Amino acid sequence: MTTVSSPLAGRVIGLAAVPDPVFSGAMVGPGTAIDPVREPGEAVSPVDGVIVSLHPHAFVVVDDAGHGVLTHLGIDTVQLNGEGFELLVSKGDTVARGDAVVRWDPAAVEAAGKSPICPVVALEATAEALSGLVESADVAAGDTLFSWK
Q1: Which of 55, 57, 67, 72 is catalytic?
Q2: β-strand partners of 147
Q3: Is 144 within the bounds of a domain?
Q4: Nearest-5° Cα angle at 134, 125 to 144
Q5: Is 20 helix (H, G, I), strand (E, B) or coil?
């Protein structure tokens, strides 16, 4: 069982509320989403594992069970070409839950005309594999979002 933690502080709104059909339709995988607090900060690893994909706006950490967890910082933020994002780790690095991965500013993302909402997705999972899925709550970085069997 893998416990997936919130990579940032904010309000959990659930995937269905994400303003992107790929995420809201769970095409990437099941999970939830966070509307982050509007202050500069760090997105942290939601699980212990290895960074297998790393972009300024998104990262994937794979744990020892082979579960890949995608954290996507905002919607359409790839169009910002890394502006306002600072990578704090490298692809291939081993991270612990709560380790800082990317420094960013959700308010700057919003000011640039993009949604700062952050999907947190269990890649290649079924909805049935997740339990305790949080769809609405205020969270701090490190609070549990769901468990993955």
Answers
A1: 72
A2: 3, 131
A3: no
A4: 85
A5: coil
Q: What is the mean pLDDT of residues 112-126?
A: 96
| H helix count then E strand count, the chain | 2, 14
72 is catalytic: yes
User: What was the pLDDT predicted at 10?
Assistant: 98
CA 119 to each of CA 26, 47: distance values in angstroms, whole numbers, following the listed order: 10, 15
Q: Domain count for the chain, please give it.
A: 1
CATH number at residue 30: 2.70.70.10
pLDDT for position 19? 94
Give the three-class secondary structure for 21. Answer: helix
Instruction: Pick the closest to residue 76 from 23, 31, 27, 33 (CA basis).
Output: 23
Domain that holds residue 49: 2-137
Residues 6 or more apart from 113 whose CB is under 8 A from it? none
- Backbone phi and psi for residue 24, each to the nearest 5 degrees, phi listed first: -65, -30
